[in-house]
Protein backbone atom coordinates (compact mmCIF):
# COMPACT_ATOMS: atom_id res chain seq x y z
CA UNK A 1 0.00 0.00 0.00
CA UNK A 2 1.04 3.59 -0.52
CA UNK A 3 1.61 6.09 2.30
CA UNK A 4 -2.12 6.91 2.36
CA UNK A 5 -3.06 3.28 2.89
CA UNK A 6 -4.43 2.78 -0.62
CA UNK A 7 -3.77 -0.63 -2.21
CA UNK A 8 -1.32 -0.27 -5.09
CA UNK A 9 -2.56 -1.75 -8.35
CA UNK A 10 -0.65 -2.03 -11.61
CA UNK A 11 -2.94 -2.08 -14.63
CA UNK A 12 -1.14 -3.57 -17.60
CA UNK A 13 -2.73 -2.92 -20.98
CA UNK A 14 -1.86 -4.93 -24.08
CA UNK A 15 -2.22 -3.84 -27.69
CA UNK A 16 -5.68 -5.09 -28.59
CA UNK A 17 -8.86 -3.35 -29.66
CA UNK A 18 -10.33 -4.05 -26.20
CA UNK A 19 -7.77 -1.66 -24.68
CA UNK A 20 -10.38 1.11 -24.62
CA UNK A 21 -12.46 -0.97 -22.16
CA UNK A 22 -9.58 -0.84 -19.66
CA UNK A 23 -10.46 2.83 -19.11
CA UNK A 24 -13.64 1.72 -17.34
CA UNK A 25 -11.69 -0.79 -15.24
CA UNK A 26 -9.23 1.97 -14.32
CA UNK A 27 -12.09 4.25 -13.29
CA UNK A 28 -13.62 1.53 -11.10
CA UNK A 29 -10.30 0.88 -9.39
CA UNK A 30 -9.46 4.53 -8.71
CA UNK A 31 -12.96 5.48 -7.55
CA UNK A 32 -12.99 2.57 -5.09
CA UNK A 33 -9.84 3.82 -3.37
CA UNK A 34 -6.97 2.10 -5.19
CA UNK A 35 -3.76 3.79 -6.28
CA UNK A 36 -3.38 2.66 -9.90
CA UNK A 37 -0.30 2.83 -12.10
CA UNK A 38 -1.02 2.07 -15.77
CA UNK A 39 1.71 0.23 -17.68
CA UNK A 40 0.69 -0.12 -21.33
CA UNK A 41 2.66 -1.87 -24.02
CA UNK A 42 3.89 0.28 -26.89
CA UNK A 43 1.22 -1.17 -29.18
CA UNK A 44 -1.51 -0.44 -26.61
CA UNK A 45 -0.82 3.27 -27.07
CA UNK A 46 -2.05 2.90 -30.66
CA UNK A 47 -5.52 2.32 -29.21
CA UNK A 48 -5.54 4.58 -26.13
CA UNK A 49 -2.99 7.38 -25.79
CA UNK A 50 -0.61 8.15 -22.97
CA UNK A 51 -2.47 11.34 -22.03
CA UNK A 52 -5.67 9.39 -21.32
CA UNK A 53 -3.97 6.92 -19.00
CA UNK A 54 -2.10 9.69 -17.17
CA UNK A 55 -5.22 11.79 -16.70
CA UNK A 56 -7.34 8.90 -15.42
CA UNK A 57 -4.71 7.43 -13.10
CA UNK A 58 -2.94 10.57 -11.90
CA UNK A 59 0.45 8.99 -12.66
CA UNK A 60 2.89 9.37 -15.54
CA UNK A 61 2.85 6.59 -18.10
CA UNK A 62 5.84 4.81 -19.61
CA UNK A 63 6.30 1.68 -21.71
CA UNK A 64 10.07 1.21 -21.73
CA UNK A 65 12.68 0.51 -19.09
CA UNK A 66 14.87 3.51 -20.06
CA UNK A 67 12.53 6.22 -18.81
CA UNK A 68 13.15 7.63 -15.30
CA UNK A 69 16.01 5.15 -14.96
CA UNK A 70 17.12 6.65 -11.64
CA UNK A 71 13.88 5.33 -10.10
CA UNK A 72 14.53 1.80 -11.45
CA UNK A 73 10.90 1.45 -12.58
CA UNK A 74 11.36 -2.00 -14.14
CA UNK A 75 11.96 -3.38 -10.64
CA UNK A 76 10.24 -0.93 -8.30
CA UNK A 77 6.76 -0.97 -9.87
CA UNK A 78 6.38 -4.73 -9.53
CA UNK A 79 7.98 -4.88 -6.09
CA UNK A 80 5.61 -2.29 -4.63
CA UNK A 81 2.37 -3.62 -6.16
CA UNK A 82 -0.40 -5.28 -4.18
CA UNK A 83 -1.98 -6.53 -7.40
CA UNK A 84 -1.08 -6.64 -11.07
CA UNK A 85 -3.94 -6.99 -13.54
CA UNK A 86 -3.41 -7.18 -17.29
CA UNK A 87 -6.56 -6.26 -19.21
CA UNK A 88 -6.72 -6.90 -22.05
CA UNK A 89 -4.05 -9.59 -22.18
CA UNK A 90 -3.30 -10.46 -25.79
CA UNK A 91 -1.94 -13.80 -26.98
CA UNK A 92 1.46 -12.14 -27.38
CA UNK A 93 1.48 -10.81 -23.81
CA UNK A 94 0.42 -14.19 -22.41
CA UNK A 95 3.22 -15.86 -24.36
CA UNK A 96 5.86 -13.40 -23.20
CA UNK A 97 4.68 -13.67 -19.59
CA UNK A 98 4.66 -17.48 -19.68
CA UNK A 99 8.18 -17.61 -21.09
CA UNK A 100 9.63 -15.00 -18.75
CA UNK A 101 10.56 -12.46 -21.42
CA UNK A 102 11.39 -8.95 -20.22
CA UNK A 103 11.59 -6.67 -23.23
CA UNK A 104 9.40 -3.82 -21.99
CA UNK A 105 8.20 -2.28 -18.74
CA UNK A 106 5.10 -4.50 -18.44
CA UNK A 107 6.94 -7.81 -18.78
CA UNK A 108 9.65 -6.59 -16.37
CA UNK A 109 6.91 -5.68 -13.90
CA UNK A 110 5.37 -9.15 -14.21
CA UNK A 111 8.73 -10.76 -13.45
CA UNK A 112 9.40 -8.66 -10.37
CA UNK A 113 5.88 -8.78 -8.91
CA UNK A 114 5.44 -10.92 -5.80
CA UNK A 115 1.76 -10.08 -5.43
CA UNK A 116 -1.30 -11.73 -7.00
CA UNK A 117 -1.47 -11.41 -10.79
CA UNK A 118 -4.67 -11.45 -12.86
CA UNK A 119 -4.79 -11.79 -16.64
CA UNK A 120 -7.99 -10.96 -18.56
CA UNK A 121 -7.37 -12.29 -22.08
CA UNK A 122 -8.98 -10.85 -25.20
CA UNK A 123 -8.33 -12.14 -28.71
CA UNK A 124 -9.98 -13.91 -31.62
CA UNK A 125 -11.37 -17.36 -30.93
CA UNK A 126 -8.80 -19.13 -33.10
CA UNK A 127 -5.97 -17.49 -31.17
CA UNK A 128 -7.50 -18.35 -27.79
CA UNK A 129 -8.03 -21.99 -28.81
CA UNK A 130 -4.57 -22.43 -30.36
CA UNK A 131 -2.50 -25.08 -28.50
CA UNK A 132 0.31 -22.59 -27.90
CA UNK A 133 -2.02 -20.17 -26.14
CA UNK A 134 -3.64 -22.95 -24.13
CA UNK A 135 -0.21 -24.15 -22.96
CA UNK A 136 0.83 -20.61 -22.03
CA UNK A 137 -2.36 -20.14 -20.03
CA UNK A 138 -1.82 -23.47 -18.27
CA UNK A 139 1.73 -22.43 -17.40
CA UNK A 140 0.63 -19.12 -15.91
CA UNK A 141 -2.12 -20.79 -13.89
CA UNK A 142 0.29 -23.42 -12.62
CA UNK A 143 2.52 -20.61 -11.34
CA UNK A 144 -0.37 -19.12 -9.37
CA UNK A 145 -1.71 -16.45 -11.72
CA UNK A 146 -5.46 -16.05 -12.15
CA UNK A 147 -6.25 -16.21 -15.87
CA UNK A 148 -9.86 -15.20 -16.40
CA UNK A 149 -11.69 -17.08 -19.16
CA UNK A 150 -12.71 -14.69 -21.94
CA UNK A 151 -16.37 -14.06 -22.69
CA UNK A 152 -18.36 -15.20 -25.70
CA UNK A 153 -19.66 -12.47 -27.98
CA UNK A 154 -18.95 -10.07 -30.80
CA UNK A 155 -15.27 -9.72 -31.65
CA UNK A 156 -13.47 -7.40 -34.05
CA UNK A 157 -15.23 -7.10 -37.38
CA UNK A 158 -18.01 -9.58 -38.05
CA UNK A 159 -16.56 -12.41 -35.95
CA UNK A 160 -18.40 -13.83 -32.95
CA UNK A 161 -17.09 -16.39 -30.49
CA UNK A 162 -15.06 -16.91 -27.34
CA UNK A 163 -12.34 -14.32 -26.88
CA UNK A 164 -14.19 -11.16 -25.94
CA UNK A 165 -12.91 -9.20 -22.94
CA UNK A 166 -15.32 -9.71 -20.03
CA UNK A 167 -17.28 -6.72 -18.77
CA UNK A 168 -14.84 -4.35 -16.97
CA UNK A 169 -17.24 -4.19 -14.01
CA UNK A 170 -16.92 -7.97 -13.62
CA UNK A 171 -13.13 -7.86 -14.03
CA UNK A 172 -13.12 -5.29 -11.24
CA UNK A 173 -15.05 -7.73 -9.03
CA UNK A 174 -12.41 -10.41 -9.67
CA UNK A 175 -9.65 -7.93 -8.81
CA UNK A 176 -11.44 -6.91 -5.63
CA UNK A 177 -11.79 -10.53 -4.49
CA UNK A 178 -8.18 -11.39 -5.39
CA UNK A 179 -6.93 -8.32 -3.53
CA UNK A 180 -8.95 -9.26 -0.43
CA UNK A 181 -7.45 -12.73 -0.41
CA UNK A 182 -3.99 -11.52 -1.40
CA UNK A 183 -3.90 -9.24 1.62
CA UNK A 184 -4.07 -12.36 3.73
CA UNK A 185 -1.35 -14.05 1.68
CA UNK A 186 -3.80 -16.60 0.31
CA UNK A 187 -2.90 -18.48 -2.86
CA UNK A 188 -5.51 -19.37 -5.54
CA UNK A 189 -6.41 -22.66 -3.83
CA UNK A 190 -8.88 -23.74 -6.51
CA UNK A 191 -6.32 -23.50 -9.30
CA UNK A 192 -6.56 -26.47 -11.63
CA UNK A 193 -10.05 -27.34 -10.39
CA UNK A 194 -13.25 -27.33 -12.39
CA UNK A 195 -16.32 -26.33 -10.42
CA UNK A 196 -19.95 -26.31 -11.51
CA UNK A 197 -22.46 -23.94 -9.91
CA UNK A 198 -26.19 -23.66 -10.47
CA UNK A 199 -27.91 -20.35 -9.78
CA UNK A 200 -31.28 -18.65 -10.04
CA UNK A 201 -34.72 -20.19 -10.01
CA UNK A 202 -36.33 -22.57 -12.50
CA UNK A 203 -39.67 -21.76 -14.13
CA UNK A 204 -42.20 -24.43 -15.05
CA UNK A 205 -44.56 -23.24 -17.80
CA UNK A 206 -48.32 -23.55 -17.46
CA UNK A 207 -49.08 -22.00 -20.83
CA UNK A 208 -47.26 -19.63 -23.22
CA UNK A 209 -47.53 -16.71 -20.79
CA UNK A 210 -47.61 -18.21 -17.26
CA UNK A 211 -45.25 -20.29 -15.18
CA UNK A 212 -44.67 -21.68 -11.69
CA UNK A 213 -41.56 -20.09 -10.25
CA UNK A 214 -39.85 -18.79 -7.13
CA UNK A 215 -38.20 -15.65 -5.79
CA UNK A 216 -34.56 -16.64 -6.31
CA UNK A 217 -32.47 -13.90 -7.95
CA UNK A 218 -29.33 -15.97 -8.49
CA UNK A 219 -27.16 -13.57 -6.48
CA UNK A 220 -25.74 -16.26 -4.19
CA UNK A 221 -24.83 -18.53 -7.08
CA UNK A 222 -23.18 -15.64 -8.90
CA UNK A 223 -21.23 -14.75 -5.74
CA UNK A 224 -20.05 -18.37 -5.61
CA UNK A 225 -18.97 -18.13 -9.26
CA UNK A 226 -17.08 -14.83 -8.84
CA UNK A 227 -15.33 -16.09 -5.72
CA UNK A 228 -14.34 -19.36 -7.38
CA UNK A 229 -12.84 -17.47 -10.35
CA UNK A 230 -10.83 -15.30 -7.96
CA UNK A 231 -9.56 -18.45 -6.28
CA UNK A 232 -8.31 -19.81 -9.60
CA UNK A 233 -11.03 -22.27 -10.61
CA UNK A 234 -12.43 -22.99 -14.03
CA UNK A 235 -16.10 -22.21 -13.51
CA UNK A 236 -19.22 -23.42 -15.28
CA UNK A 237 -22.29 -21.48 -14.16
CA UNK A 238 -25.70 -22.96 -15.00
CA UNK A 239 -27.99 -19.94 -14.69
CA UNK A 240 -31.77 -20.28 -14.50
CA UNK A 241 -33.76 -17.16 -15.32
CA UNK A 242 -31.36 -14.57 -13.91
CA UNK A 243 -31.01 -10.92 -14.89
CA UNK A 244 -27.43 -10.52 -13.66
CA UNK A 245 -24.34 -9.76 -15.77
CA UNK A 246 -22.14 -12.76 -16.53
CA UNK A 247 -19.36 -13.13 -13.95
CA UNK A 248 -15.97 -12.59 -15.57
CA UNK A 249 -14.21 -15.87 -16.19
CA UNK A 250 -17.25 -18.14 -15.91
CA UNK A 251 -18.68 -20.19 -18.75
CA UNK A 252 -22.41 -19.44 -18.46
CA UNK A 253 -25.04 -21.94 -19.58
CA UNK A 254 -28.55 -20.49 -19.55
CA UNK A 255 -31.55 -22.70 -18.76
CA UNK A 256 -35.21 -22.23 -17.94
CA UNK A 257 -36.83 -25.32 -16.46
CA UNK A 258 -35.76 -27.95 -13.93
CA UNK A 259 -35.35 -30.54 -16.69
CA UNK A 260 -33.10 -28.21 -18.67
CA UNK A 261 -31.07 -27.46 -15.54
CA UNK A 262 -30.66 -31.16 -14.81
CA UNK A 263 -29.35 -31.83 -18.32
CA UNK A 264 -26.89 -28.94 -18.21
CA UNK A 265 -25.59 -29.69 -14.71
CA UNK A 266 -25.09 -33.42 -15.35
CA UNK A 267 -23.22 -32.65 -18.56
CA UNK A 268 -20.94 -30.09 -16.92
CA UNK A 269 -20.38 -32.28 -13.84
CA UNK A 270 -18.82 -35.06 -15.91
CA UNK A 271 -15.30 -33.66 -15.31
CA UNK A 272 -15.98 -31.40 -12.32
CA UNK A 273 -14.13 -31.55 -9.01
CA UNK A 274 -17.07 -29.94 -7.20
CA UNK A 275 -20.72 -29.20 -7.91
CA UNK A 276 -22.58 -26.56 -5.91
CA UNK A 277 -26.36 -26.58 -6.36
CA UNK A 278 -27.28 -23.05 -5.31
CA UNK A 279 -30.25 -22.76 -7.69
CA UNK A 280 -33.82 -22.95 -6.42
CA UNK A 281 -35.04 -25.91 -8.47
CA UNK A 282 -38.79 -26.49 -8.67
CA UNK A 283 -39.90 -29.70 -6.98
CA UNK A 284 -42.95 -29.95 -9.24
CA UNK A 285 -44.07 -28.99 -12.75
CA UNK A 286 -47.52 -28.90 -14.33
CA UNK A 287 -48.60 -32.28 -15.61
CA UNK A 288 -49.98 -30.66 -18.74
CA UNK A 289 -48.85 -27.67 -20.77
CA UNK A 290 -51.58 -25.64 -22.41
CA UNK A 291 -50.64 -24.75 -25.98
CA UNK A 292 -52.76 -21.60 -25.80
CA UNK A 293 -53.25 -19.08 -23.02
CA UNK A 294 -55.59 -20.43 -20.34
CA UNK A 295 -58.68 -18.24 -20.55
CA UNK A 296 -60.75 -16.95 -17.67
CA UNK A 297 -64.35 -18.10 -17.98
CA UNK A 298 -67.04 -15.99 -16.39
CA UNK A 299 -68.93 -17.75 -13.60
CA UNK A 300 -66.58 -20.74 -13.51
CA UNK A 301 -63.66 -21.54 -11.22
CA UNK A 302 -60.43 -22.50 -12.95
CA UNK A 303 -59.56 -26.14 -13.37
CA UNK A 304 -57.14 -27.45 -10.72
CA UNK A 305 -53.51 -27.59 -11.87
CA UNK A 306 -52.21 -31.15 -11.65
CA UNK A 307 -48.52 -31.39 -10.75
CA UNK A 308 -45.86 -34.04 -11.26
CA UNK A 309 -42.48 -34.38 -9.57
CA UNK A 310 -39.33 -33.05 -11.12
CA UNK A 311 -36.13 -35.11 -10.91
CA UNK A 312 -34.12 -34.62 -7.72
CA UNK A 313 -30.91 -33.32 -9.28
CA UNK A 314 -29.00 -32.97 -6.00
CA UNK A 315 -29.76 -36.54 -4.92
CA UNK A 316 -28.85 -37.81 -8.38
CA UNK A 317 -25.50 -36.02 -8.32
CA UNK A 318 -24.75 -37.34 -4.83
CA UNK A 319 -25.64 -40.97 -5.52
CA UNK A 320 -23.82 -41.24 -8.85
CA UNK A 321 -20.64 -39.16 -8.58
CA UNK A 322 -19.23 -38.44 -12.01
CA UNK A 323 -15.67 -38.99 -10.75
CA UNK A 324 -13.99 -40.25 -7.57
CA UNK A 325 -13.64 -37.60 -4.87
CA UNK A 326 -16.14 -35.24 -6.44
CA UNK A 327 -17.61 -32.90 -3.80
CA UNK A 328 -21.35 -32.16 -3.96
CA UNK A 329 -22.87 -29.18 -2.14
CA UNK A 330 -26.57 -28.49 -1.78
CA UNK A 331 -28.62 -25.54 -0.58
CA UNK A 332 -31.74 -25.76 1.58
CA UNK A 333 -34.14 -22.86 1.90
CA UNK A 334 -36.27 -23.39 5.01
CA UNK A 335 -39.00 -21.37 6.70
CA UNK A 336 -39.10 -23.20 10.06
CA UNK A 337 -37.08 -25.74 12.10
CA UNK A 338 -34.17 -24.71 9.92
CA UNK A 339 -31.38 -26.89 11.34
CA UNK A 340 -33.55 -29.95 11.97
CA UNK A 341 -34.95 -29.85 8.47
CA UNK A 342 -31.49 -29.19 7.09
CA UNK A 343 -29.97 -32.21 8.83
CA UNK A 344 -32.79 -34.40 7.56
CA UNK A 345 -32.30 -33.11 4.02
CA UNK A 346 -28.54 -33.63 4.18
CA UNK A 347 -29.03 -37.28 5.12
CA UNK A 348 -31.73 -37.75 2.51
CA UNK A 349 -29.80 -36.16 -0.36
CA UNK A 350 -26.45 -37.76 0.42
CA UNK A 351 -24.37 -34.67 -0.37
CA UNK A 352 -21.13 -33.67 1.36
CA UNK A 353 -22.24 -30.21 2.48
CA UNK A 354 -25.60 -28.51 2.79
CA UNK A 355 -25.97 -24.75 3.13
CA UNK A 356 -29.11 -24.08 5.17
CA UNK A 357 -30.73 -20.68 5.44
CA UNK A 358 -34.05 -19.30 6.54
CA UNK A 359 -36.05 -17.69 3.77
CA UNK A 360 -39.12 -15.54 3.56
CA UNK A 361 -40.54 -12.59 1.73
CA UNK A 362 -37.91 -10.24 3.14
CA UNK A 363 -35.12 -12.76 3.73
CA UNK A 364 -32.34 -14.00 1.44
CA UNK A 365 -34.10 -13.99 -1.95
CA UNK A 366 -33.01 -10.92 -3.93
CA UNK A 367 -30.98 -9.56 -1.03
CA UNK A 368 -27.30 -8.55 -1.21
CA UNK A 369 -26.75 -10.36 2.11
CA UNK A 370 -27.22 -13.86 3.45
CA UNK A 371 -27.00 -15.74 6.73
CA UNK A 372 -26.61 -19.51 6.86
CA UNK A 373 -25.19 -22.61 8.48
CA UNK A 374 -23.01 -24.95 6.44
CA UNK A 375 -23.75 -28.49 7.56
CA UNK A 376 -21.29 -31.29 6.85
CA UNK A 377 -21.97 -34.99 6.36
CA UNK A 378 -19.34 -35.49 9.08
CA UNK A 379 -21.65 -33.79 11.60
CA UNK A 380 -19.93 -30.41 11.47
CA UNK A 381 -21.74 -27.08 11.60
CA UNK A 382 -20.22 -23.83 10.32
CA UNK A 383 -22.39 -20.79 11.06
CA UNK A 384 -21.98 -17.80 8.76
CA UNK A 385 -23.32 -14.54 10.26
CA UNK A 386 -25.38 -12.16 8.17
CA UNK A 387 -23.19 -10.39 5.68
CA UNK A 388 -22.35 -10.11 1.97
CA UNK A 389 -23.17 -13.20 -0.06
CA UNK A 390 -19.56 -13.44 -1.15
CA UNK A 391 -18.59 -14.06 2.51
CA UNK A 392 -20.82 -17.13 2.54
CA UNK A 393 -19.35 -18.11 -0.83
CA UNK A 394 -15.82 -18.01 0.60
CA UNK A 395 -16.89 -20.17 3.54
CA UNK A 396 -18.41 -22.74 1.18
CA UNK A 397 -15.25 -22.86 -0.93
CA UNK A 398 -13.09 -23.13 2.21
CA UNK A 399 -15.03 -26.26 3.15
CA UNK A 400 -14.90 -27.62 -0.41
CA UNK A 401 -11.13 -27.11 -0.62
CA UNK A 402 -10.70 -28.94 2.68
CA UNK A 403 -12.64 -31.92 1.31
CA UNK A 404 -10.77 -31.88 -2.01
CA UNK A 405 -7.41 -31.74 -0.27
CA UNK A 406 -8.22 -35.05 1.46
CA UNK A 407 -8.07 -36.86 -1.87
TrEMBL record:
The organism's place on the tree of life at top rank: Bacteria
UniProt KW Magnesium keyword: yes
Region called Phosphopantothenoylcysteine decarboxylase, residue ranges: 1-194
Cofactor(s) required, per the database record: Mg(2+); FMN
Domain DNA/pantothenate metabolism flavoprotein C-terminal: 190-402
InterPro entries in the cross-refs: CoaB-like_sf, CoaBC, DNA/pantothenate-metab_flavo_C, Flavin_trans-like, Flavoprotein
Signal peptide feature range: none
Domain named Flavoprotein: residues: 8-175
Regions that span the bilayer: none
Function as written in the Swiss-Prot or TrEMBL entry: Catalyzes two steps in the biosynthesis of coenzyme A. In the first step cysteine is conjugated to 4'-phosphopantothenate to form 4-phosphopantothenoylcysteine, in the latter compound is decarboxylated to form 4'-phosphopantotheine.
Similarity comment: family membership: In the N-terminal section; belongs to the HFCD (homo-oligomeric flavin containing Cys decarboxylase) superfamily.
The protein's name: Coenzyme A biosynthesis bifunctional protein CoaBC
Gene, per the UniProt record: coaBC
